[in-house]
């Protein structure tokens, strides 16, 4: 009996060991396959970024009063001159307000004349002691009130005339209409943007830098196999909370006034000297960069497992990015599919 028990225990142990080995083998076979990228030191001396051509001044245009648009005189992309009519509100209500204000002013002037005549009569009677001094003072007070009412009527008439003028929206300067977002029959509120005007004059290039990069003072615009010098004009006061980039505006150092090659809104390429850094930078595929709300990171492959490593983005190219962080040349990172990875996850390297 004891021999039977011993044999049974031995068989059970062998069976459990075999199951554990099978489970381990199955777990390894189910580990995701990742494509590796071997890090190499980046020795770039310049960075290249895309930029957008902008006008130095771009004005959003809106009516100062609310109303229904009765006429539209222009279209998007049209060149306009200063003072040219763009859109017009239905003027009927504003014309009636002017007429009402004119009638109020006429009534106020008539009341003022009556009050003046009444005061003159009371002063004459007061000299003959025919009325009391209090009655004369009351007549003088009525005259002051009539003058105040006339001033109010004059102000209301001026405001009504201004509103009638505001019913027509004119171009504030020479330029090109980037967009016209309102049409006839549309009711708009005061201050609602109905068009956007790019003022005539010099063009600028708008560039978005990674938040870790300070926009350089100088750069170059690569256009039609020529390089045009750029100089920094302004930098945004804060990093964009969604894209985590910093906007900068660069002015062309020399412009001859012919902006035919600089179409508004077109995407152009710019080049800047790489900012000095105490950290070693690396080139990685764009697919290797993972963003999960804690900043950009890459996934290092080490001993069959992956772990995230925070990095700072220096610049972004068409298919690659320049980054720096606590990495070393020769290490492997995951090239694509980083959104599926978890901290300390087992993986299989492709071609292993």
UniProtKB/TrEMBL annotation:
UniProt superkingdom: Bacteria
Annotated Multidrug resistance protein MdtA-like alpha-helical hairpin domain residues: 99-167
InterPro entries listed in its UniProt record: MdtA-like_BSH, MdtA-like_HH, RND_pump_MFP
Residue ranges annotated for the Multidrug resistance protein MdtA-like barrel-sandwich hybrid domain, each copy included: 64-193
Keyword Signal annotated: yes
Family listed: Belongs to the membrane fusion protein (MFP) (TC 8.A.1) family.
Descriptive protein name: RND efflux pump membrane fusion protein barrel-sandwich domain-containing protein
């Amino acid at each position: 009996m004891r021999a039977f028990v011993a044999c049974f225990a031995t068989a059970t142990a062998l069976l459990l060991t075999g199951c554990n080995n099978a489970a381990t083998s199955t777990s390894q076979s189910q580990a995701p396959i990742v494509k590796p990228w071997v890090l190499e030191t980046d020795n770039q001396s310049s960075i290249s970024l895309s930029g957008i051509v902008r006008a130095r001044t771009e004005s959003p245009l809106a009516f100062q009063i609310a109303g229904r648009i009765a006429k539209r005189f222009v279209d998007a992309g049209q060149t306009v001159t200063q003072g040219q009519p763009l859109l017009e509100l239905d003027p009927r209500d504003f014309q009636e307000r002017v007429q009402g204000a004119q009638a109020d002013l006429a009534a106020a002037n008539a009341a003022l004349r009556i009050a003046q005549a009444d005061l003159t009569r009371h002063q004459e009677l007061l000299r003959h002691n025919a009325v009391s001094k209090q009655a004369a003072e009351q007549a003088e007070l009525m005259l002051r009130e009539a003058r105040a009412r006339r001033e109010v009527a004059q102000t209301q008439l001026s405001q009504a005339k201004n509103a009638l003028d505001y019913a027509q929206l004119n171009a504030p300067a020479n330029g090109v209409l980037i967009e016209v977002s309102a049409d006839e029959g549309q009711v708009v509120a005061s201050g609602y943007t109905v068009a956007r005007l790019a003022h005539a004059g010099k063009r600028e290039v708008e560039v978005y830098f990674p938040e870790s990069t300070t926009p350089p003072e100088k750069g170059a615009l690569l256009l039609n196999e020529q390089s045009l010098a750029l100089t920094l004009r302004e930098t945004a006061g804060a990093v964009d909370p969604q894209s985590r980039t910093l906007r900068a505006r660069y002015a062309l150092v020399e412009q001859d006034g012919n902006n035919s090659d600089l179409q508004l809104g077109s995407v152009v390429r710019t080049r800047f000297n790489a900012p000095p850094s105490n950290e070693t930078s690396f080139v990685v595929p764009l697919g290797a960069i993972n963003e999960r709300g804690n900043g950009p990171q890459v996934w290092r492959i080490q001993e069959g497992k992956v772990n995230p490593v925070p990095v700072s983005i220096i610049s972004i190219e068409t298919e690659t990015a320049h980054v720096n962080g606590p990495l070393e040349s020769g290490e492997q990172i995951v090239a694509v599919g980083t959104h599926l990875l978890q901290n300390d996850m087992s993986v299989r390297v492709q071609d292993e």
